[in-house]
Design goal:
- This protein has 342 residues and is an alpha/beta fold.
- It has 2 domains: 218 residues, Spore Coat Polysaccharide Biosynthesis Protein SpsA, Chain A, CATH 3.90.550; 77 residues, no CATH class.
- Helix content is 37%, strand content 20%.
- The protein contains 10 helices and 14 strands.
- Strands 1, 2, 3, 4, 5, 6, 11, 12 and 13 form a 9-stranded mixed sheet that branches. A 3-stranded mixed sheet has the order 8-7-14, with no helix packed on it.
- It is globular.
- The two termini are 35 Å apart.
- 46% of the residues are buried.
Amino acid sequence: MKRVAVVILNYNGKKFLEEFLPNVIENTDAALADIVVADNASTDGSKEFMQERFPDIRLIDNGVNGGFATGYNMALRQIEAEYFVLLNSDIEVAPHWIEPVVELMDADPTIAACQPKILSYHEKNKFEYAGASGGFIDRYGYPFCRGRVFQNLEEDNGQYDDICEVFWATGACMFVRADLYLKHGGLDDSFFAHMEEIDFCWRMKNLGYKIYCCPQSKVYHIGGGTLPKSSARKTYLNFRNNLSLLYKNLPGNRVFWVMMYRVLLDWVAAVKFLCEGSLADFWAVTRAHLAFYRRIPSIRKKRKALQHREVGQMYQQNIVFESFLKGKKKYSELDPEKFTHA
């Protein structure tokens, strides 16, 4: 058994496998890590392509498209390793991208998950939306990153090259301890896609573990490979899953007021979509709320099975107001004293 399993989840991503898998193979130490491709019932010839071009790479056929969460859960239950690496198919990795993260996690067994620095494939001097140099959330569940606040992507000038504890590690390239992942149920299947990694990281933090970013490892991400950033489907999943994320993981003394305030903010966003002429996004927010309300009984059961406490690295301000009203467009402009400490 190799210590690391790099697992690429694929759904109709043959073009990405063709372009990026050779790079992953070239820059991954075969003595340290195995590479596995897990397929979510692709119809674009991905499986046949893998069997013809990369017969030595293990291919797991999930048989169904259960989305990001279920796809990984199905695959990782079949793999033995000390560390799993969840790697998007549209990522180019730099040389020696695995070793710094494994060295960091080996040195501190309380680190449950860790991500590298995520840069844009098309603009390699800029951070990429999905993770940048480590993820955080504000008190109302809005995610942001070192290097990315909403749509504002910073240039990477080494300003976030310090290894640090964060709130969440991106699912685009997340290193996670295999025993913890399997013991605690992996990703939440009901999320399908989007924010499931934040939910997982929050659950780990509630258990007393830490999440880190290790910028000494670098990868380059295209982003939007399955759903484009402007997709109403993505809007629906993000709004629905964000409500589930908060309801599941907030400590009991904050659930009611945070949820009430977040619902209000969501309807402000929905009205904004409508005023901008984006009826599809307005309807996506509406459907997201209806879906969440229907799911409350099942989410409540999950909540009752979890531990809850005040955790570190949560920004105790409203990042929406901070960014759009106060003009704080960079992580470095946020008040470090406003982040919680475990």
